[in-house]
């Protein structure tokens, strides 16, 4: 870009993690098991049988990790609460030790001038609730509102930015349709029911917040722009279907109070008729929407199940270790689409980053400092933050950027094989080593984006 980019005053620079991916000690101090504790301990469900039993040991190293965030100059930190630490059976009895862990973490963040952004649900449903049907049970909206209310009463005021759900699309596409993620179901009939109950739970939690809380609450979605692979009718229709399935399936009910028409084509006989009053619950005024952006999808018609659409590999593009095309312009296009479709709801980029061929371990450089050279990640981050600036110049109200992730961590079914962190974690020693990209990002924060 020609001259140094100027980001809006108050634009918030941070990083993101999630409880099950970094904490370890999943059953410590009275915590109950989650569906991920069970899923990862089920043979064959995760790469190398990796589990969250230790992860980054953040449950014990949290104070040093906050110091690391301060040293990096982070202004904000997005994390999630493990529901089953606070309510071991999912509802009813509160485990004070679990609540205290998050209360202490929030106080430490505030003491270090770091704003907490708290995600209530980042995929780790208490196993006890899965035994009662989990997200397939319409009561899940009440369970979630009860848990959310416990958290609001304990932390609101110290926490001023709340997120209900992280990525409902992944929860249902992974957990209920294809079975790659907990709870590992494979059902075309269950997926829309789980989706719908997740969105009812989102609405119930926002409604509860308006009774108890005094600050801001939003929803986080992972969305990716879909571009037709050709201008054939088949590819254009397939692209529309893929766009509705991933990008509109959750934002439409949350912000417009209805589903996109294409979902009936995707699910066919498995698409239920929804009670009208459900949409009054689901559609709640939001203070912001969090967008998690990684890549785009150049889309063609194919015979994939059930979408009959799929991504076409781009011959000259760069791909990350998770097979995602490096396409920063997609973020600008997506943000402009969001504003055009949903209006001026403020947006945070609540996740962006890449697993990008880091060296396996930190080397020690000339002055004995640990060093991890990750130029591809720095290139990815620089271009995506630049793409956000382009969207801001196009009039989109983007309020902040949470880099995924602070630490290398448990990439769900891919185990520890994919490193998204700006800080390297040696899992044998738990040694943290800021990568070159972390030092670069610190400079971006210090210059409020001008050094991009
Ligand atoms: O795949 C990278 C990230 N994507 N969004 C949800 C996070 O939990 C993932 O680690
Ligand atoms: Ca219809």
Describe, in plain words, how this protein is organized in 3D:
- The chain is α/β, with parallel strands linked by helices and 452 residues long.
- Helices cover 39% and strands 15% of the residues.
- It contains 16 helices and 15 strands.
- The chain has helices at 19-22, 35-40, 58-72, 83-86, 96-111, 127-130, 140-155, 168-177, 190-212, 233-248, 251-256, 262-267, 277-282, 329-342, 375-393, 436-446, and strands at residues 12-16, 76-80, 115-121, 161-166, 216-222, 226-228, 288-292, 297-301, 309-311, 347-351, 363-364, 370-371, 398-404, 423-426, 431-434.
- The strands form 4 sheets. Strands 1-2-3-4-5-7-10-13 form an 8-stranded parallel beta barrel, surrounded by 4 helices. A 3-stranded mixed beta sheet has the order 6-8-9.
- Helix 3 runs parallel beside helix 5 (96-111), helix 7 (140-155) runs parallel beside helix 9 and helix 15 packs parallel to helix 16 (436-446).
- The protein is globular, with a radius of gyration of 21 Å.
- The termini are close together.
- The mean pLDDT is 97.
- Bound molecules: azafagomine and calcium ion (CA).
- Azafagomine (AZF) binds at residues 18, 21, 167, 222, 292, 351, 404, 411, 420.
- Calcium ion binds at residues 261, 264.
Give the bound compounds: azafagomine, calcium ion
Distance between the termini: 9 Å
* Relative strand content: 15-25%
| Biggest β-sheet strands, sense, barrel | 8 strands, parallel, barrel
């Amino acid at each position: 870009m020609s001259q140094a980019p100027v980001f809006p005053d108050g634009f918030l620079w941070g990083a993101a993690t999630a409880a099950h991916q970094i904490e370890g000690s999943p059953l410590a101090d009275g915590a109950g098991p989650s569906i991920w504790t069970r899923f990862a301990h089920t043979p064959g469900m995760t790469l190398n049988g990796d589990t969250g039993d230790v992860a980054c040991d953040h449950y014990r190293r949290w104070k040093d990790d906050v110091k690391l965030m301060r040293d990096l100059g982070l202004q904000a930190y997005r994390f999630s609460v493990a529901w089953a630490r606070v309510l071991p059976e999912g509802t009813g009895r509160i485990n004070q030790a679990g609540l205290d862990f998050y209360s202490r973490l929030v106080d430490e963040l505030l003491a270090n001038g770091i704003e907490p952004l708290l995600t209530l649900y980042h995929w780790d449903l208490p196993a006890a609730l899965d035994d009662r049907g989990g997200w397939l049970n319409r009561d899940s909206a009440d369970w979630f509102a009860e848990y959310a209310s416990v958290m609001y009463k304990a932390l609101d005021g110290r926490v001023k930015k709340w997120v209900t759900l992280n990525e409902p699309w992944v929860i249902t596409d992974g957990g209920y349709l294809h079975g790659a993620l907990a709870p590992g179901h494979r059902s075309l009939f269950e997926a829309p029911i789980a989706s719908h109950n997740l969105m009812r739970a989102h609405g119930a939690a926002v409604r509860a917040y308006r009774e108890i809380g005094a600050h801001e609450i939003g929803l986080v979605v992972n969305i990716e722009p879909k571009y037709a692979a050709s201008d054939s009718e088949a590819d254009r229709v397939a692209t529309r279907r893929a766009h509705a399935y991933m990008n509109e399936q959750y934002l439409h009910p949350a912000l417009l109070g209805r589903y996109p028409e294409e979902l009936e084509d995707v699910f066919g006989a498995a698409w239920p008729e929804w009670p009208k009053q459900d949409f009054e619950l689901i559609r709640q005024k939001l203070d912001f929407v969090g967008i998690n952006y990684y890549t785009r999808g150049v889309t063609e018609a194919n015979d994939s199940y059930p979408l009959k659409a799929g991504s076409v590999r781009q011959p000259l593009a760069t791909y990350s270790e998770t097979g995602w095309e490096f396409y920063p312009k997609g973020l600008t296009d997506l943000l402009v689409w969001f504003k055009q479709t949903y209006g001026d709801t403020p947006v945070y980029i609540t996740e962006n980053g890449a697993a990008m061929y880091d060296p396996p371990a930190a080397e020690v450089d000339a002055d004995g400092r640990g060093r991890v050279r990750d130029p591809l990640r720095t290139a990815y981050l620089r271009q995506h933050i630049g793409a956000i600036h382009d969207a801001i110049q196009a009039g989109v109200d983007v309020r902040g950027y949470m880099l995924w992730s602070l630490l290398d961590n448990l990439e769900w079914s891919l185990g520890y094989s994919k490193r998204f962190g700006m800080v390297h974690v040696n899992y044998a020693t738990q040694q943290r080593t800021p990568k070159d990209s972390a030092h670069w990002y610190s400079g971006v924060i210090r210059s409020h984006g001008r050094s991009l």
